[in-house]
Amino acid sequence: MTGAGAMIDEWYPVGLFSQLTEAGSKTALMGEPIEVTRTPDGAAQVRSSSGRALPVRVRYGHVWSSLGNPAKELFAIPEADQPGRRFVDVGVVRVRCSPLRAVENFLDIAHFPFVHTDILGAEPHTEVESYKVEIREAEDEVWATQVKFYQPQAAKSATGGITTEYMYRVPAPTCSVLYKTCPPRPTEWDVITLFVQPLAEDLCDVWPWMALFDDVTPMTDLIHFQQMIFLQDRSILENQIPALLPLDPGMEIPTRADMTSIAYRRWLKRHNYLYGAQLVAQ
């Protein structure tokens, strides 16, 4: 596929397993129409427009597939098997932006006070403190750690403003896993993920998923809270210029707060993950 690069052989979310039917649902993956169905024996099945059976995995409440031949298994999230957590299928939000832009926005800390005002951030608490970013060679993942930010309402379960600690992890080109302070259990991490389905280079479906320690908040409230956060991001994402994610370091001027983005872009370029990217200025 032209422009797909190595991303053709990666796993992507294509639907919620709980919503599968034998009638199936039509969607797309990297410009190709696909159909996702439940077989009579209850398994997930994905086929291309030509009828070709595509690889399938069911994990984290979602069906995953690929147009290519993934050389490695879907990345692990150990917290998905941890007893006592509530697993929240947030649903889907369609965004007219590059799938890579959607992930990069999720990694951005500096926008909290301005886009998620009085929830994930507030003035005058706008400074991004120094944090650590690395590409972990053994896992081949981008990690940002020691990220701290004051938040008026860090989670639906929060009862007041706290300084929240974050860790960001990028295990796949269109997926990110966020570990953040868990208000009810300060010794644990809440897990919030962003699984992005690339429909086209400038269009994607975003499937957030959460693994939380929260036995009090109604499930509907947890879903609505996370959807509200992402819908606040959507208007920003859909107005970014250029529409595709620039990988040429000279095309944008980064700041100290953008260290995670810089590492992510470097990692994408290293692996030829180019679907949704722009290599040179136009």
- Enumerate how many helices there are, as a single number: 4
The parts where pLDDT drops under 50 for at least 5 residues are: 113-118
For the biggest sheet, the summary is: 8 strands, antiparallel
Principal-axis shape equals globular
Mean of residue pLDDT values:
85
Could you explain how this protein is built, in words?
The chain has four helices and 16 strands. With 282 residues, the chain is an alpha+beta fold. It is globular, with a radius of gyration of 18 Å. It comes from Rhizobium mulingense.
Lay out the secondary structure.
Blueprint: E1 12-16, E2 25-29, E3 32-38, E4 44-48, E5 56-59, E6 62-65, E7 86-89, E8 93-95, H1 99-107, H2 112-115, E9 132-136, E10 141-151, E11 162-172, E12 175-181, E13 189-200, E14 203-212, H3 219-237, E15 245-246, H4 259-271, E16 277-278
Parallel strand pairs: 15-16
Antiparallel strand pairs: 1-6, 2-3, 3-4, 5-6, 7-14, 8-14, 9-10, 10-11, 11-12, 12-13, 13-14
